[in-house]
Amino acid sequence: MTFTSLGADSSFSSLASASIKSTSLLKGGAITTLSASKATRGQAIRITRSSFQDAGRVGTREDDPIFYRFTLNTRTPVRLSTRNQEAGGIFSAFVPELRVELQQSSGRRIRSQTIEGGEIETITATLARGTYFVRITSGGQSVPYLLGFRRGANLFS
């Protein structure tokens, strides 16, 4: 499945042209997101492709936190782009935040971002061989999100 429009942010929009995995399905003219929530690292959603995208909801109506897992065979640059799908705008003070963490297999945090409603944040890093986790939380409030993952040698060019 390919997404054709993800917003104005160029780092996130660059994922739009790639063919990517998603748990969203077109059903009766509307996009329906399958439940992909995983509350523990042992139940993490596995990312096995170089480009990946997933949409979901984290918070009180779904398992919180949600984990994703990926393994690198060599030192590789990666980019995580996350969008808080909750509308911002005039009432942005009342919109819940998302928190995204890139973690080592030990659980040690490598980088993290807090994402306001309607915003997109990107984490980029060149990581050594090993297994890594992405942890998404919302502080207990139900928040829709869009996660894009990309890895590869030409990522930063």
Q: What topology emerges from the helices and strands here?
A:
Blueprint: H1 10-13, E1 24-27, E2 30-33, E3 45-46, E4 51-58, E5 66-72, E6 76-84, E7 98-104, E8 109-115, E9 120-127, E10 130-137, E11 143-151
Parallel strand pairs: 3-5
Antiparallel strand pairs: 1-2, 4-11, 5-10, 6-9, 6-11, 7-8, 7-10
What is the total tally of β strands?
Answer: 11
Low-confidence blocks of residues: 1-37
Number of distinct helices:
1
Largest sheet: 5 strands, mixed
* Sequence of strands across the biggest β-sheet: 3-5-10-7-8
Describe the structure.
- A five-stranded mixed beta sheet has the order 3-5-10-7-8, with no helix packed on it. The chain has a four-stranded antiparallel beta sheet with strand order 4-11-6-9, with no helix packed on it. Strands 1-2 form a two-stranded antiparallel sheet.
- The protein is an all-beta fold and 157 residues long.
- Helix content is 3%, strand content 46%.
- It is globular.
- It has one domain (10-151): Jelly Rolls.
- Strand 7 and strand 8 form a beta hairpin.
- The chain has one helix at residues 10-13, and strands at residues 24-27, 30-33, 45-46, 51-58, 66-72, 76-84, 98-104, 109-115, 120-127, 130-137, 143-151.
